[in-house]
Amino acid sequence: MDRPTASLRQRSIHRRTEGATVKIGIIGAGFIGGTLTRRLTELGHEVRVANSRAPETLADLAAETGATPVWAAEAAEDADLVIVSIPQKNVPDLAPGIVDARKPGAPVIETNNYYPQQRDGLIEAIENGTPESVWVSEHLGVPVYKVFNGIYWKHLLEKGLPAGAEGRIALPVAGDDPEGKTIVFGIVDELGFDPVDAGPLAESWRQQPGTPVYGKDFGVDDTIAALAEASPERTAEWRAA
Fold first, then answer.
1. Inter-residue contact 123 to 139 (CB < 8 Å)
2. What residues form DSSP beta bridges with 5?
3. In 12-131, where does DSSP find H-type helix?
4. What is the CA radius of gyration of the chain?
5. Cβ count near 43 (within 10 Å)
6. CA-wise closest residue to 112 among 40, 177, 204, 22
7. What's this model's pTM, rounded to 2 decimal places?
8. Closest CA to 16 of 151, 167, 183, 139
């Protein structure tokens, strides 16, 4: 495999003028989904957010952020970008075609992690070597991009910095389509983090739990090195007991 390389920071192609609004659908309002709702609305984007329950249960988050609470089946409607951020074990419960109402070519980010001992129980395909995000992609029926899975939610909320700032955290992004990756890189950059190209989705295991980059606030160079050092073999803590 080629060594992962840092990507140039690129604005989303949907942000055709400075300050333009991106329509974003978020499925999942937990630590990462809720944090992204807060950050992306602060940046002026139009966010529709859903959880596994009725929209009324998101009234507090909506009042705080200005996001629009919707049913999960409505979150992706006409979206420029969709984010799926739910427990891994709940992915098969999502309705078929749940992200199909997004705009043509709109990328789908998934932030999930497989925690077999801590939460999810045994998922046989992942235990047998299918990368977590490939498994999610197969269930959703669309290509996905893996990012935001390894950063502590409070750091995602509080530690974004302007481009070029000392100590800026780098976030790996795995995915297959270069155009979609450009959009995802732009969102990562806008949130205050350096996007690093982590390779294709088939190698997204490089940023799964238990790998050298997972849970670390590395800069670009250390992130690239950690991705290159990763092994596809799951460590004991991250296998089903």
1. no
2. 197
3. 31-42, 59-65, 124-127
4. 17
5. 17
6. 204
7. 0.93
8. 183
Chain-centroid distance of CA 210 in Å reads 18
Amino acid, res. 110: E
Structure tokens given for 74 = 């409505």
In this structure, what token pair is assigned to residue 132? Answer: 């977590």
3-state secondary structure of 132: helix
Contact between 190 and 165 (Cβ < 8 Å): no
Say yes or no to pLDDT of 111 above 50.
yes
Q: How many CA atoms lie within 13 A of 49 on its CB side?
A: 31
And the tokens for 234? 């799951």
**Contact criterion met (CB below 8 Å) for 108 and 179:** no
Helix (H/G/I), strand (E/B), else coil: 163 = coil
- DSSP letter at 46 equals E
Tens-place pLDDT, residues 175-197: 999 999 999 999 999 999 999 99
Residue 174 tokens read as 């795995």
- Contact (Cβ atoms closer than 8 angstroms) between residue 13 and residue 182: yes
- 187, amino acid identity: I
